[in-house]
């Protein structure tokens, strides 16, 4: 049963009814019985409709890296909305689409110098997989059709993304998915990695499984490998030291494209514009979304290396290079928001700031180790995750109770994955707010044990 709730007295026919919205990735009835509603945001905080501040320890959903409702971003969106609402991205263009692509490319390492724009991380994942297939086919390697993901990976919810993804609840009800997919093993091993700060020492050898897949399927059938530099949705699992370099070496040896899904790690989360830079590895493609506009307007995209762009864009014949795109690719509001966001990141040195505060963040977050029931703590960049014991009535129930208590009693927004709290605050967080995040989480942990 949903409760009557004064959502907004001007909102429509049934303003007090939460029933109609079929909420994504949410237990609808439990939420509607005890809603966690926010209606305003500024900098590090959300505010409930009653005006109660909620400390945002999740940057919304790993998006609001510059903090919320920053004036330059708000103004850029307002100005763009008044100037030009929409422009078709097929066969026509507008200046900000080119400007933002150049800015994003300039932030990427190596020759990742072209950008295909879309509207979300899911679209970015599917776009990258399609580009990989089309790249090999265009170069005459039409047998290279197999895509390799990784257990516990998350690449959004399109059919491509869930096929290469490795989270069973996201896959099991959705039919046979894409054919010709295989998965690398995940890199988490609690026994060997527990309570690591940053990249764990153990785990690079897990990349060798790719050699095994080459032996099994033959290199001539393999198109691309897609991994997140840090698995976010499955509970924030950083790449082990040396793991991504080894994947790059094996991909190079066999002509397999390497795709980094940087939808979470892009735009400063690990202290660099892209995690590829932190790890000194240049993948063939990087997918991004979220932080590209600090979450203010939906936007995603795929950075591709020069050899990929050149494969499609060979001559000045007026024929379409890639039969793929979205009506809202390079939407003017998204481009305006992104340009303002990228300015803010640069002016405030927010990526470098993460590198500076990472040790402070890690030390503070790891103090939660003293709490009852804690099984592991992981930190990397400005990300923290704490795993704790599940209750007997099922995995995830203790975390759900914790998330409710965090919101209603402690005034903090956290994310859960199974019985893990994952936090990833806006990059503008200050030291006292880091302390506040840890104190509030500590009190929540005390309450749920
Ligand atoms: C690594 C990764 N890839 C893709 C996605 C999907 O992004 P979206 O929800 O914008 O489709 C996410 C979302 O959290 C993600 O974390």
Give the low-confidence spans. none
**Rg over C-alpha atoms, rounded to the nearest angstrom:** 22 Å
The mean pLDDT is 96
The total number of structural domains is 2
Got a strand count? 17
Can you walk through the features of this model?
The chain is an alpha/beta fold. It folds into two domains: 36-66 and 349-448, Aspartate Aminotransferase, domain 1; 73-347, Aspartate Aminotransferase, domain 2 (3-Layer(aba) Sandwich), CATH 3.40.640. 36% of the residues lie in helices and 16% in strands. The strands form four sheets. Strands 4-12-11-10-7-5-6 form a seven-stranded mixed sheet, sandwiched between helices. A four-stranded mixed sheet has the order 1-2-3-15. Strands 13-14-17-16 form a four-stranded antiparallel sheet, covered by helices on one side. Helix 6 (159-164) links the parallel strand 5 and strand 6 (181-184). It is globular and about 65 Å long. It binds pyridoxal-5'-phosphate (PLP). Pyridoxal-5'-phosphate is lined by residues 62, 120-122, 125, 154-156, 228, 232-233, 261, 263-264, 289. Residues 62, 120-122, 125, 154-156, 228, 232-233, 261, 263-264, 289 line the site of pyridoxal-5'-phosphate.
């Amino acid at each position: 049963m949903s409760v009557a709730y004064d959502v907004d007295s001007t909102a429509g026919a049934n303003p007090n009814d939460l029933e109609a919205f079929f909420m994504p990735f949410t237990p609808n009835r439990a939420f509607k019985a005890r809603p966690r509603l926010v209606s305003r945001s500024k900098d590090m905080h959300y505010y409930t409709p009653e005006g109660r501040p909620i400390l945002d320890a999740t940057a919304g959903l790993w998006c609001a890296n510059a903090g919320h409702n920053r004036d330059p971003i708000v103004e850029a969106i307002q100005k763009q909305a008044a100037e030009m609402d929409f422009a078709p991205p097929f066969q026509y263009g507008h200046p900000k689409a080119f400007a933002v692509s150049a800015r994003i490319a300039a932030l990427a390492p190596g020759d990742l110098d072209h950008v295909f724009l879309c509207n979300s991380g899911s679209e970015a994942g599917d776009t990258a997989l399609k580009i990989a297939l089309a790249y090999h086919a265009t170069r005459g390697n039409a047998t290279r059709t197999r895509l390799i993901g990784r257990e516990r990976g998350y690449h959004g919810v399109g059919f491509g993304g869930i096929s290469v993804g490795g989270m069973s609840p996201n896959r099991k009800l959705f039919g046979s998915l894409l054919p010709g997919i295989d998965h690398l093993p995940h890199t988490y091993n609690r026994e060997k990695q527990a309570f690591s700060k940053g990249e764990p020492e153990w785990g690079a050898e897990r990349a060798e499984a790719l050699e095994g897949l080459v032996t099994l399927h033959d290199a001539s059938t393999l198109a691309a490998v897609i991994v997140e530099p840090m698995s976010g949705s499955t509970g924030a699992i950083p790449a082990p030291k040396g793991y991504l370099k080894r994947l790059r070496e094996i991909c190079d040896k066999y002509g397999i494209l390497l795709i980094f899904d940087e939808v979470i790690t892009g735009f400063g989360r690990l202290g660099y514009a892209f995690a590829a830079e932190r790890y000194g590895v240049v993948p063939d493609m990087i997918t991004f979304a979220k932080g590209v506009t600090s979450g203010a307007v939906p936007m995603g995209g795929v950075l591709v290396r020069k050899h990929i762009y050149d494969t499609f864009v060979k001559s000045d014949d007026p024929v379409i290079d890639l039969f793929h795109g979205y009506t809202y690719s390079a939407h003017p509001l998204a481009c305006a928001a992104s340009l303002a966001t990228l300015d803010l990141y640069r002016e405030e040195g927010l990526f470098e700031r993460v590198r500076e505060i990472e040790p402070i963040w890690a030390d503070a977050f790891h103090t939660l180790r003293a709490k009852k029931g804690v099984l592991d703590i992981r930190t990397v960049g400005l990300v923290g995750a704490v795993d704790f014991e599940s209750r007997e009535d099922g995995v995830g129930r203790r975390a759900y109770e914790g998330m409710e208590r965090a919101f209603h009693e402690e005034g903090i927004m956290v994310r859960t994955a199974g019985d893990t709290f994952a936090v990833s605050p806006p990059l503008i967080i200050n030291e006292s707010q880091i302390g506040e995040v840890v104190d509030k989480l500590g009190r929540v942990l005390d309450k749920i044990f």
